[in-house]
Design goal:
Distance between the termini: 17 Å
CATH class of the largest domain: Alpha Beta
Strand order of the largest sheet: 9-5-3-2-1-10
Helix content: 40-55%
Radius of gyration: 21 Å
Shape: globular
Largest sheet: 6 strands, mixed
Length: 298
């Protein structure tokens, strides 16, 4: 690689970025995106979801992504830089379909994490490239409630069963009655029966969407089914935060590999810029509540 290209890829240092305003930091983003896009000779779509405000995938994201993809050169491949804790599973499916329909070759770049519904978006790509510390997770979408709280769908679905089992296993009848009255009762009263009913369909919904995405990019139906059952709680993942790294992603049958070292460094630097911008905005009293969506041609 010549000296000029190496200089462009190296980019600004951490301490230099920290001294900039959010507006100045945002001005760095196009150059960083361009360096990655030119290096890989592919279009680059970034989807960074701010962590401080627990921003998650939502229906509004589809129109924004559709807009930025509209003017791209579909003859070139597409890289999707994903940094997200998840969100709405229907949105993740629609985003993956948008990318599949527009491009014949889509690759997910995951520098740190693409969890829950974001995992569905990632596996909808033809290939996945993860850094050594990157992780996917079980297909367990986060559900947003009116009070702003978020809970994993499987936790909502299974909580009554867990509590009921705990009460049934209690041998002291008085304690059992107290638990039923003061623990199970109040919790059950907070759970909307409609929401609980909807959550019961999450495993089959995740598998149905996943099968459509995987078979569309060349996976056989049996292979797709096996992969998706490994990605749901039907195979006993112990928690919503369960880590699926690049090695396990390959082991379960996904087309996954570790990022090239140079691309990894560029993606981590881009992640740093996004995070610094987010922190600065929070410090200024304007925490970002929507994803940073950018598109750059090679």
């Amino acid at each position: 690689m010549d000296a000029e290209k190496s200089k462009n890829i190296e980019g600004p240092k951490v301490d230099e970025i920290a001294r900039l305003s959010p507006e100045q930091i945002k001005e760095l983003i196009p150059a960083l995106l361009s360096a990655i896009a030119k290096k890989r000779e592919r279009n680059l779509l970034t989807m960074f979801y701010p962590e401080s405000t627990s921003a998650s995938m939502s229906p509004r994201d589809t129109s924004e992504v559709r807009s930025v993809l509209a003017d791209s050169n579909s003859q070139k491949g597409l890289d999707v830089f994903i940094h997200s804790g998840g969100g709405d599973i229907h949105t993740a499916y629609k985003l993956a379909k948008l990318c599949q329909k527009r491009f014949k070759d889509v690759k997910a770049l995951v520098p740190e994490f693409a969890k829950s519904a974001a995992t569905l978006l990632a596996i909808g790509c033809h290939g996945l490239e993860l850094s050594p510390i990157a992780e996917l997770g079980p297909l367990d979408p986060m559900i947003n409630f009116e009070d702003g709280s978020q809970y994993p769908a499987f936790a909502i679905r299974d909580s009554p069963k867990v509590l009921e089992k705990e009460i049934e296993e209690c041998k002291d009848e008085k304690v059992r009655k107290l638990k039923a009255e003061h623990i199970l009762g109040p919790i059950a009263a907070k759970i909307d029966p409609y929401v609980l009913s909807e959550m019961s369909d999450i495993p089959s919904l995740a598998i149905a969407y996943g099968k459509k995405l995987l078979t569309a990019i060349g996976y056989g139906e049996e292979v797709a089914e096996r992969i998706l059952r490994r990605l749901t709680y039907e195979r006993g993942h112990p928690s919503h935060g369960y880590v699926i790294d690049v090695d396990e992603a390959r082991e379960i049958g996904l087309n996954a590999k570790e990022m090239d070292k140079e691309i990894e460094e560029q993606c981590i630097q881009l992640l740093l810029v996004f995070r610094t911008c987010e922190r600065k905005m929070c410090d200024n009293g304007h925490p970002p509540k929507t994803p940073y969506v950018f598109m750059k041609a090679p």
